[in-house]
Amino acid sequence: MSQHRENEIPQQAFDWYDDYAHGGMDRRTFMNKLGTLAALGYSMTALTSALMPNYALAEQVSFNDPNIVASYQTFASPDGHGEGGGYLVTPTQVTRELPAVLVVHENRGLNPYVKDVARRLAKAGFLAFAPDALFPLGGYPGNDDEGKALQRSMDRLKLQHDFVAAAKYLKQNAKSNGKLGAVGFCYGGYIVNYLAAVESDLLAAGVPFYGTPAAPELRKNIKAPLLVQLGELDERVNATWPDYQKDLDSLNVSYKMHMYEGAMHGFHNDSTARYDEKNAALAWQRTLDFFAEKLN
């Protein structure tokens, strides 16, 4: 039987991965489902290598880049887990107070892709801070499966308080100009929506990538302008948009939603085969332009 090429991986496999990545099935079930495709002639090696993250692919800005300096910092989180920690990246040529951007990871802790996003922001002239939700448990464990299990074991409300504390830590940083933006991916997209809703004056701009909205009772607090980034094939998250859009309209919130044609959930993440280079580059440029407009 002839082998299918990697670029012919069916959409169903990506849908299974999305379900697995968000706790809808366990790893054994996911691998068994992939096995049904292997029986049809798909290479199991090609399937798993395409669907699972390869973080060596995600480094666009080296931590040794002379234009930035990175360090690990801690912050107080009295309403969360007591103390949080994260990855702070600053441009080296600082001649003024900087617009600040919180970078919020997916549902698996602060992995190398999200750290690289923080470095990209710093290289573009922003003060960037990427908190690690798993800090109270020792930090991102080095692989996504363990990271997802650890994050799933944590108290949801305390996690949200940790991100609020991280936002306030960054906003009050001595190098910050006091205007705070936030960008997040998947679970991090939800956290951006939550931060915009939990306190009206916390964010000056939010960019949720394929994130679900905050609880309806919180949305009345939203004041910050939003740039909503969605992938056309992301049925799970996109199903929440009409109701969210209706509330944003009724509240006269300034927002812009971009739906990226043919893009999947996770299309900005350049460590997996869901990455869509053209759409990711466009979405990222829009993100940088939005923050430059709203935070300076």
Averaged pLDDT, please? 92
**Main sheet attributes: strand count, strand direction, barrel closure:** 8 strands, mixed
The succession of helices and strands, N to C, reads: HHHEEEHEHHEHEEHHEH
Q: Helix count?
A: 10
Percent of residues in helices: 25-40%
Structural class: alpha/beta
**What is the distance, rounded to the nearest whole angstrom, between the alpha carbons of the first and last residues?**
59 Å
Q: Name the CATH homologous superfamily of the largest domain.
A: Alpha/Beta hydrolase fold, catalytic domain
Please tell me what the overall shape is.
globular
Could you name the CATH topology of the largest domain?
Rossmann fold
Describe this structure in words.
The chain is α/β, with parallel strands linked by helices and 296 residues long. The chain has two domains: 6-52, no CATH class; 56-295, Alpha/Beta hydrolase fold, catalytic domain (Rossmann fold, 3-Layer(aba) Sandwich). It contains ten helices and eight strands.
